[in-house]
Fold this protein.
Amino acid sequence: MGRKFKKKLCQICKQKGLRKESVIYMKEHRLALCKEHFIEWFEKRVKETIKEFKMFSPSEKVLVAVSGGKDSQTLWYVLNKLGYNADGFFINLGIGDYSEESLQKVKELGKILGKEPYIVDLKEKVGAPLPVLKNFVLGTACSVCGRIKRYHFNKIARELGYRVVATGHNLDDESSSLLANLINWNLKYLARKYPVLPEEKGFPRKVKPLVKLTEEQIKTYADLVGVPYTNRSCPLGDTANLHFYKHLMEEIENHARGTKYRFYFEFLKKVFPIFNTLKEELVEGELQKCKICGEPSPSEICFVCRLKERLQKKETH
Ligand code: SF4
Ligand code: ZN
Ligand code: ZN
């Protein structure tokens, strides 16, 4: 993202009569802050988001879905810094160097936090790494990957006694995906577009504590406090669409400062409640227990168990 800014003085230091150069200028807040005050601002914003949306209490155990990228790594770090009981959970997708480097970064952060991350290896759990698995189902690598990840996050959270799963989605992710889903009138998606989804139907509560922070702010924070993360992008990612809408949102933001935030948070306040009343109709119907693994599933046999069966029979698409 790297928005350019002229070196300004930290406004908080300035109020105290000090002259300290800022490390970031946040155009949407008209705020320039030095390292110390930006870190303070960032952590306060995360804490406020958790409280505002009643995401979890300090006594609850939180499982953070870490991918090795800057957002989820920062989330795991900042939750611990704020005193929450947050543990990292990583799924090794087996995507060559990308997965290897991601795993290293997760382990590195675990060392810094003094916490061992939970690691699930897709090859061991399902029988093959993602580059092989994607040939056994119709759809893009990301859609297969997303479903496999969700299945394991839910399963592991329940097995380990975590009622809350946190992900590193940021304001850029949320506002641009809202735009994409509105343009396509994807009602099913809009009915679930909220920073906290309650624990229900055998699924843990899902929370997004970084929704008020942009990619640029998260990257700046991560670099300032020394959160290890990988810059590599997944070679299987079909991200052209995602990048298009992010770019579009950025264009609108450059045209009218603060739009990203307004667009998303006004949706939550004014429109989401309407969609939420239609949730039962819009979101998939009744769930049942998968006959093989017992996980909640819309069909008799869940997606992952079907995938395993196909793999054994070598039924590729
Ligand atoms: Fe999975 Fe797609 Fe992300 Fe790669 S880019 S890790 S395939 S969701
Ligand atoms: Zn300052
Ligand atoms: Zn199953």
About this structure: Residues 93, 141-142, 145-146, 234, 236-237 surround iron/sulfur cluster (ligand 1) (CB under 6 Å). Residues 192 and 220 are 30 Å apart (CA to CA). Strands lie at 24-26, 31-33, 61-65, 85-92, 118-121, 164-166, 196-197, 205-207, 288-289, 296-297.
